[in-house]
Design goal:
The chain is an alpha/beta fold. It has a single domain (about 5-105), classed as Transcription Regulator spoIIAA, CATH 3.30.750. It is about 45% helix and about 30% strand. The protein has helices at about 25-30, 35-40, 55-70, 80-90, 90-95, 100-105; strands at about 5-10, 15-20, 45-50, 75, 95-100. Helix 1 packs parallel to helix 3 (about 55-70). The chain is globular, with a radius of gyration of 12 Å.
């Protein structure tokens, strides 16, 4: 199943919800989100990964780029256990906040 990405705003927070495996092809769609969000006035990005069973290495790479290039806060929410373990092994938990729910992510 291809990954779909939907976006919405909550004040100056942009929330992107992913559904499906974040493979190399889907990662290319993620790359411009941080810049587009910043230009749209976002001060925080929330990536909701509740329905993502797998993140490819390129997906991890674009998330790292988003974390380093976005001038505001980047938060990941609702990671599945396998994805959470992948984030931990890749060191993403040291670079960005990871929350159990989107509501928690909105509060940080």
């Amino acid at each position: 199943m291809p990954c779909t990405i939907t976006g919405r705003t909550d004040g100056d927070t942009y929330i992107y919800t992913f559904e499906g495996a974040l493979d190399t092809e889907a990662a290319m769609e993620v790359a411009p989100l941080a810049k587009r969000s910043y230009l749209g006035g976002a001060k925080k990005l929330v990536f909701d990964l509740e329905r993502v069973p797998f993140v490819a290495s390129m997906g991890l790479g674009v998330f790292v780029t988003a974390i380093k290039s976005f001038p505001g806060r980047v938060v990941f929410a609702t990671l599945q256990p396998y994805v959470r373990q992948t984030f931990k092994l890749a060191g993403l938990e040291d670079l960005a906040t990871v929350c159990k729910t989107v509501d928690d992510a909105l509060r940080v």
